[in-house]
Amino acid sequence: xxxxSVIVLLGASGNLAAKKxxxxxxxxxxxxxxxxxxxxxxxxxxxxxxxSCVDQSSPELEDHxxxxxxxxxxxxxxxxxxxxxFVVLKKRMESFIEGDETQNRHFYMAxxxxxxVAVSEQLRRNCYSEKGDSQxxxxxxxxxxxxxxxxxxxxxxxxxxxxxxxxxxxYLGKEMVKNIMTLRFGNPMFGAxxxxxHIDNIQISMTEDIGTEGRGGYxxxxxxxxxxxxxxxxxILALTTMExxxxxxxxxxxxxxxxxxxxxxxxxxxxxxxxxxxRTKDGKHPGYKDDDDVPEDSRxxxxxxxxxxxxNARWENVPFILKSxxxxxxxxxxxxxxxxxxxxxxxxxxxxxxxxxxxxxxxxVRLKMNAKMPGLELRTVExxxxxxxxxxxxDPDIPEAYEALLLxxxxxxxxxxxxxxxxxxxxxxxxxxxxxxxxxxxxxxxPYVYGSEGPDGLEEFIASYQVQK
Length: 469
Known about the structure:
469 residues; alpha/beta; 9-stranded mixed beta sheet
């Protein structure tokens, strides 16, 4: 029953979202999972690692795990043995083939980006499926800037076709991000308002209430722009602003996203506010530079808000305010679409209409609107239509982002894989800003206290791009 397939987890301590696909009955009966890593582990050690990642809170889930672990095995990479470990991997995969079966092979690269190319070359040379399909799956970051991203693709290109590369941006697997197209194109009332004639500004934000949590050394080489904005926020912006695709096929969808991203001019430092968190007065929460792995003179931004524009007729002069940061007052990701003001000729003291798409936590769509306050006088009050999933849908089954993306990858559906064209367009938007912020030593991130709303002046910065009442 089902297609003979193998998932190879390179960096086996990485994502194990496949366990939930198993529980849902969405994996082929003949699919096998091989952990492939430098960490020396026995088969039993690997099963214990898998077990630690699996919910076994009920007899039914225990039974699911027992079946799932039968799919799993492990190979320790001998770093000093050249291709030998990859030959062992090839033989392990071939041992699962019966007769003349074809076998699809998915290589999940949960590895440091600096070894992507070398490992992908060894996989192509030793483990490529000659009869079935082969696929290499990457997580961000895809390069450090435009130049390094283009260089990475050039080095992968001789061995792997674009149709064999699945680039994961896990935000594309989140339920509310997947819902953006349905909201836009499945509801004429929104479609009619989705342009510069009705929308004043759009805010796309992703904030976290935790700091770098011991990852300061890694984060200092990345920063908030590369970590979140160049990828997650750009994908949300593309889905929010693109024209209606000819179909929901991978080719049409990715073409439209790339097309609209190419219409976004490079971002500028003069339209940007960068910040870096500092310790609280009571010392309970440390500052960014309190991490031993962070240089004392670090100018790495842990917060950034910047303003983008899309140069086409639909979005002429509409500011897209992008915001992301760590160690802020709350963790949330949302799109806030603020419509233009009503005239004051008839009604006074009205609020702006706003459509709010809450991506996480507590997935929701909310519409803020004006209504008459009950009573004998004509007075307005702001009301809200609220579609909070957990309140509206009984026991909503919201899949994890990786769960959705891996299933697409296994099925060969590339509609939620980031294309090379999207990636290049996104880096063109951010690379000049990154070089300016990092190259100009006179630009120092504004300090903000851990747990605050962000740097001083943030509210005024955002308000300067919004219509004022």
